[in-house]
Design a protein that fits this description.
By secondary structure, the chain is α+β, with helices and mostly antiparallel strands. Helix content is 12%, strand content 27%. The chain has 1 helix and 7 strands, in the order βββββαββ. It has one helix at residues 80-94; strands at 15-19, 23-27, 48-52, 60-64, 70-73, 104-108, 111-115. Strands 5-4-6 form a 3-stranded antiparallel β-sheet, covered by helices on one side. It is elongated and about 70 Å long.
Length: 125
């Protein structure tokens, strides 16, 4: 049986822990209560996942010169408007250098959704 709150102290946030035989058990970190192992609830396997688009979380950009070579790689920004402001400032600064203009920039999103392909073992004939 899965509880919505701890039966001893009423804490609403219970942790699930894996046990032998692929069973789950609930635990309360407030009072130490431990439930009985149970068969896990079935859940759908999702083929879509949200991942960070860059090495660090947040928006980032790259500025390129007239030949398409990168001049500037930005830090990560928590908000899109912050990244855009910094990006246009960098374009303006970089275009003052000789033989660079016109510059172009790519703003990378904080996250992207990707779709995987689902596999399972083939049945033998």
């Amino acid at each position: 049986m899965k509880y919505k709150e701890c039966p001893e102290c009423g804490e609403p946030h219970l942790a699930d822990e894996w046990q032998r035989g692929r069973k789950l058990r609930q635990r309360c970190h407030e009072c130490g209560w431990v439930g009985e192992p149970r068969t896990p609830e079935k859940q759908r396997v999702s083929k879509v996942k949200t991942i960070c688009a860059s090495q660090f979380s947040g928006y980032c950009y790259e500025v390129f010169d007239q030949y398409g070579h990168a001049i500037t790689s930005s830090r990560s920004y928590g908000r899109r408007d912050e990244a855009l402001k910094a990006m246009f400032d960098d374009i303006e600064r970089d275009e003052r250098m000789p033989n660079v203009a016109p510059c172009r920039a790519v703003l990378w999103p904080a996250t992207v959704k990707v779709r995987g392909q689902l596999f399972s073992r083939r049945k033998k004939k």
